[in-house]
Amino acid sequence: MFALDDSFARELVGLHQPWRAEPVADPSLVILNEELASELGLDVEGLRSPAGDSILAGNDAPAGVTTVAQAYSGQLFGGYSPRLGDGRALLLGEIVDDEGSRLDLHLKGSGRTPFARGGDGRAALGPMLREYVIGEAMHALGIRTTRALAVAATGETILREVDGRVTDVPGAVLARVASSHLRVGTFQFASATGDRELHGRLTGYAIARHTPDAAGADNPALALFDHVVDVQASLVARWMAVGFIHGVMNTDNTTISGETIDYGPCAFMDAYDPTTVFSSIDHGGRYAYGNQPAIITWNLARLAEAMLPLFDDDTDAAVESASGVLQTFPERFQSAWSAAMRAKLGLDAGVAGGDPSSSDPSNGDDVIGDLLALMGEQRVDYTMCLRALSSVVRGDAEPARSLFTEPEAFDAWAARWLALVGEDRSAIADRMDRVNPIYIPRNHIVEEVLTAASWGDHDALDDFLDAVTHPFEQRPGRERYAQPAPDAVDYRTFCGT
């Protein structure tokens, strides 16, 4: 049906445990990402067959590979856990394209492994469908992400707490594709073993998969670290630009590839507020929307600590080298965030004749900051407001103006902003519409469609998926998908375990 390689299993002994999935009673495909399957050159019809169901649910492993549970550490809300690993997941292997590039195929919810920390090792259908929906929405928004290939039902029920009571819910397995599943926590685990040779093998493997040019650098390990700092700065900037809150930015959820991973308690912000938290377990707001740049910097510092012996045998020199790279993060993040926000406000072609990459206030960053402050003061929906700005450029201010409780303040801001926008207003507005989505996975709608799908009603899920995977295209009859949650509803997200 498809061939896989297992380079991770072969080359990184010491960072995994060979393991097989626990068989399930009656595997059946719930949803298949045909677009992704086709991109990967996989046999779509084969995946839809009983044999495909069996592989995607973990009952059968592809021939010729060793399936493994990966080992990694993690900083969970700041507290170090030395041995996490894939407690309910397995790496099936790697899909290798014609150019030799590798993509991991990974199962989630495939049963307990030696890294399990309690629980049954299974996953509920709702959270697995959630990861499918959010991942595909992020992909459509142009944000680097792991992607779901499929969700397969197990034919079994599992016990989970729902609305404060323990009940039976349908079980499922997620098949996920990623550039790799190497994490900051992987390097922390390798460092904690004290095995310099293993640590070096991991670094060489990461370089080969994610930044091959670093192999020729004077200091390949430092070049890898520089790469991770860069891709994470870009990733978190893109999150912030669309109002995304990851919700559980532990070091085991920070990838070396710069892809978003683990869509548990994530959500998209409604009214603009940097303190926004949806996660039920984030009581102190550690991973609030506005804290994400600081948290990823902290995570990258933990990566630097884990890699210090690879940078230089002299500890002081290693710290100096790592610090020099890490200190570039604020500038890299600000540059990526400013570029994204200038595009959203139609300022990306140059502002008032200036260089759009300039840090001078005339490039519009002050106008961006003032808009966000105004949105925060008046509790304005982030996504709706940014989308409505293109109407202002076209000459109709009312769609944006009506979102503000004190529209005169918006009028004053808009006059300043429009003075910076170029003269080709129609083309600028069209460009803005290509980067400001109408549809995002609003948390209340996500919960609604996943609840229905968990019990067999897939129509709403299919319709919602079609909207969020075409986020910039306005569709008749889908107006409520663009609306924020009712103010009276206090939504919370959960880790899904």
Question: What structural keywords apply?
Answer:
41% helix; 6-stranded antiparallel beta sheet; 497 residues; alpha+beta; 18 helices; two-stranded antiparallel ribbon; single chain; globular
Structure, explained:
- The protein contains 18 helices and 12 strands.
- With 497 residues, it is an alpha+beta fold.
- Strands 2, 6, 7, 8, 9 and 10 form a 6-stranded antiparallel β-sheet that branches. A two-stranded antiparallel sheet has the order 1-3.
- Helix 8 packs antiparallel against helix 9 (292-311), helix 9 runs antiparallel to helix 10 (315-326) and helix 13 runs antiparallel to helix 16 (425-433).
- The longest helix has 23 residues, at 220-242.
- The radius of gyration is 23 Å and the shape is globular.
Give me the secondary-structure topology.
Blueprint: H1 7-11, E1 16-18, E2 28-32, H2 34-39, H3 44-47, H4 50-56, E3 68-70, E4 74-76, E5 79-81, E6 89-96, E7 102-108, E8 123-124, H5 125-140, E9 147-162, E10 165-178, H6 184-193, H7 196-210, H8 220-242, E11 244-245, E12 267-268, H9 292-311, H10 315-326, H11 329-344, H12 365-377, H13 382-393, H14 398-401, H15 407-418, H16 425-433, H17 443-454, H18 459-468
Antiparallel strand pairs: 1-3, 2-9, 4-5, 6-7, 7-10, 8-10, 9-10, 11-12
Helix pairs in contact: 5-17, 6-7, 6-9, 8-9, 8-10, 8-11, 9-10, 12-15, 13-16, 17-18
